[in-house]
UniProtKB/TrEMBL annotation:
It comes from the Bacteria. Coiled coil: none annotated. The lineage of its organism: Bacteria, Bacillati, Bacillota, Bacilli, Lactobacillales. The chain crosses the membrane at residues 35-55. One of its GO terms (biological process) is cell division. Pfam families: DivIC. Keywords: Membrane, Transmembrane, Transmembrane helix. This is Septum formation initiator. InterPro entries: DivIC (IPR039076), FtsL/DivIC (IPR007060).
């Protein structure tokens, strides 16, 4: 047979007060844990919302940067074509250039003049037009 230890509680004011204090202490801990749980859940939700907002802002920034790069490149191309057109306008104001251009491009000739077109000459002159 095993011996069981038995603890006998004394019935006095001190032991009764200590038991009441322990029970009150346990009752006080439960609401604190409950509130801490609620607070931690709210904190996690707020943090996740801020992270989602940050990721969304970052993707929008990347999209805008891509658009900026695209339009900057497009603007640069338009600027070079505008420069070429301006140079062409200046050249077309010169009568000698217009006459040479018409002879080469459209095979016009002066009176009593024979024009023989060669493919190499035409491509060379057309290439010069684009570069000038």
């Amino acid at each position: 047979m095993s011996k069981k230890k038995r603890v006998v509680r004394l019935n006095n004011d001190y032991t009764n007060d200590s038991i009441v204090k322990q029970q009150n202490h346990i009752k006080e801990k439960l609401p604190r844990r409950k509130y801490m749980g609620i607070i931690s859940v709210i904190a996690v939700v707020l943090m996740s919302l801020s992270v989602v907002n940050l990721v969304k802002s970052y993707t929008e920034l990347e999209d805008k940067m891509k658009l900026e790069k695209k339009y900057t490149e497009e603007d640069k191309n338009l600027g070079t074509s505008l420069d070429m057109k301006e140079r062409q306008v200046v050249k077309l104001q010169n009568d000698d250039y217009v006459a040479k251009y018409a002879r080469v491009k459209y095979l016009y000739s002066k009176d009593d003049e024979l024009v023989f077109s060669t493919p190499d000459l035409l491509t060379t002159n057309q290439g010069n037009e684009k570069n000038d």
